[in-house]
Recover the amino acids of this structure.
């Protein structure tokens, strides 16, 4: 990459908690959000499995047209899938097929299954509390490093090979998919080198960060793995700043920090 070439500017987003417009990403780990009316339909499919429009309309006490509209919306969002039934009776999973009209049943996709209740936040806080109990600094640093690597593994297939700027744009997309308001800016240092500043206005792990800022180190290591470049935490909300900023040298060689830096405090 030509160090004299200034990358295009991506304006940061306002420092509020509103999520920017989101584009769906493959294999997203973000938990889908549903309308209240859609949630009832989804719970019926979760309970009953493959179900036809007639049975859904009867259970919901709405018209078949209303059910189809909800199903079409949920299919566009990848939450529900439709299957053709060869032999069935009108109304449900066994719906008698009329001549010339294939019958359909509907079921939740893998993404749809993730709309159910979860206690991952509570579990994460408990697990992190146990990490804090580890007395050996060396073991604890190793755990932080492994957590960062594992976090990167969740999103690695969504960050394609390319220039650092391209990978940064993809990482920003991942953050936005997680409803984290963020943006990237570029600056030129006095020595002529360039820095990319990834700014996050929302902490992804507020409960954990309140207990132990070691999660910031793991987040930084995750970014290093995803970007293939060194990342440093330039400012942190825990230090009184209004946002967290990660600095990435644009012309730095790919690779992670040395072990002592990588597993230390952010």
């Amino acid at each position: 990459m030509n160090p004299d070439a200034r990358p295009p500017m991506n304006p940061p987003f306002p420092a509020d908690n509103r999520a920017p417009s989101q584009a769906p990403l493959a294999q997203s780990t973000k938990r889908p959000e549903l309308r209240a009316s859609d949630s009832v339909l989804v719970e019926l499919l979760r309970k009953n499995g493959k179900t036809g429009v007639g049975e859904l309309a009867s259970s919901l006490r709405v018209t078949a047209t209303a059910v189809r509209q909800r199903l079409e919306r949920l299919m566009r969002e990848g939450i529900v899938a439709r299957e053709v039934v060869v032999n069935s009776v009108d109304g449900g999973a066994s719906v008698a097929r009329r001549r010339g009209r294939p019958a359909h049943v509907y079921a939740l996709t893998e993404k749809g299954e993730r709309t159910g209740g979860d206690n991952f936040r509570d579990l994460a806080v408990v697990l992190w509390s146990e990490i804090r109990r580890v007395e050996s600094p060396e073991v604890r640093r190793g755990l932080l490093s492994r957590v960062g690597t594992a976090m990167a593994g969740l999103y690695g297939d969504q960050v394609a090979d390319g220039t650092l700027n391209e990978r940064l744009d993809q990482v920003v997309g991942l953050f936005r998919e997680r409803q984290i308001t963020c943006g990237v800016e570029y600056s030129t240092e006095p020595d002529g080198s360039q820095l990319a500043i990834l700014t996050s206005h929302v902490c992804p792990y507020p409960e954990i960060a309140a207990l132990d800022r070691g999660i910031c180190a793991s987040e930084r290591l995750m970014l290093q793995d995803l970007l293939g470049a060194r990342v440093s935490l330039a400012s942190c909300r825990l230090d009184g700043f209004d946002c967290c900023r990660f600095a990435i040298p644009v012309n730095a060689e790919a690779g992670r920090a040395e072990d002592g830096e990588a597993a230390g405090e952010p």
User: Anything to note?
Assistant: The CA atoms of residues 126 and 208 lie 9 Å apart. The radius of gyration is 24 Å. Residues 36-113 form a domain with the Arc Repressor Mutant, subunit A fold (CATH 1.10.10.10). Strands lie at 80-85, 103-108, 182-188, 194-200, 232-235, 244-249.
